[in-house]
Design a protein that fits this description.
209 residues, alpha+beta, five-stranded mixed β-sheet, four-stranded antiparallel β-sheet, 4 helices
Length: 209
């Protein structure tokens, strides 16, 4: 489901700052990662040791192995992404463009005319703890020279929900970030903005990032 961007409005007098590494985001990431690795570890132990109750221990080990692959397949990518998600990061949005600030030197800044379209996507992934959100910023450049002007964004090209010719940037599990970013871009009067898009429920290792 897409929330229409609506007609452009005049840009805000002051830039809008959006902090990505909020306390809520950090806690969700740490708790979710710990639970996935814990469940995966128990399942792997059962599959390898054979200490499983039931009439058919072979089938039990196979099932435990499948659960281990599932949970570890979710938890390991989350663990790898943790240093990125936990460090201080923020967006600055104004009538001229959008800037991503990152203390690790991976920041970037783009003006609105550099985009043919951009949108904010959210998704929901169910889990044993009730589920988590997923937020992504999808950007489609307006010209072929975009990648050369922004080499730090090359890792987003065609990834994280971005189709061919698009750049997808993962923003973590806090859906309130999507709402803040949506409001800021709308307020900046961006004509290329495609709105806030709810992509529904996702399953699998890619469900977080």
């Amino acid at each position: 489901m897409t929330t229409p961007a609506g007609p452009p409005r005049s840009g805000p007098a002051q830039p809008v700052f959006i902090e990505l590494s909020t306390t809520a985001t950090r806690m969700k990431l740490i708790l979710g990662t710990a639970l996935m690795l814990l469940f995966g570890g128990f399942a792997a132990y059962g599959a390898l040791s054979g200490h499983i109750d039931g009439d058919n221990p072979v089938a039990g080990r196979i099932i435990s192995g499948c659960f281990a692959l599932l949970f570890l397949g979710l938890g390991i990518p989350m663990l790898i992404s943790m240093p990125t998600m936990l460090r201080s990061r923020s967006f600055v949005v104004d009538s001229q463009g959008i800037q991503y600030q990152d203390r690790k030197g991976r920041g970037w800044a783009c003006t609105w005319p550099e985009f043919d379209q951009l949108r904010v996507e959210t998704a929901y992934r169910p889990s044993r703890t009730g589920g988590r959100g997923r937020v992504r910023l999808i950007m489609k450049p307006s010209d072929a020279g975009f990648g050369q002007r922004h080499p730090s964004m090359s890792r987003f090209a065609g990834h994280f929900g971005g189709k061919a010719g698009e750049y997808g940037m993962p923003l973590g599990p806090d859906v309130s970030i999507a709402e803040q970013l949506d409001s800021a871009i709308r307020g900046a009067g961006v004509g290329c903005y495609g709105g806030l898009v709810d992509t529904g429920m996702v399953i699998g290792p890619g469900g977080y990032v």
